[in-house]
Amino acid sequence: MSNPKKIFIVDDDNFLLDMYVLKFNQGGFEVSTSLGSIAALTRLREGFSPDILLLDIMMPEMDGFELLEKIKEENLSKDSIKIILSNRGQQSDILRGESLGVSGYIVKATSTPTEVINKVNEIINKS
Prior knowledge:
Layout: E1 6-11, H1 14-26, E2 30-35, H2 37-45, E3 52-55, H3 64-73, E4 81-86, H4 91-99, E5 104-107, H5 113-126
Parallel strand pairs: 1-2, 1-3, 3-4, 4-5
């Protein structure tokens, strides 16, 4: 069996983080989480480089787009597959994500946790 993929989930909702940790663990991933962008940025600056970065857009202090901009500016986690997981599904948000190098965009409101795992796996297999 191959090594589990390391996924880093960034969200400001503890309940969602706990649920996704459980689901991604069941899906064979090695899961790390961060409650919000500031803490996530600190971890990445310390050299943490997950295989997959799954992040929310709507967060206090620094939103997901700002986090992606900082990651790009500072050349952090450059080999990570970046995926947005957000309730915002406007075309403008999807295009902004693409311009910041994300490989996929998943809308939380229309996806069950199992569907999120399946979509993440699809994105990984395409990358």
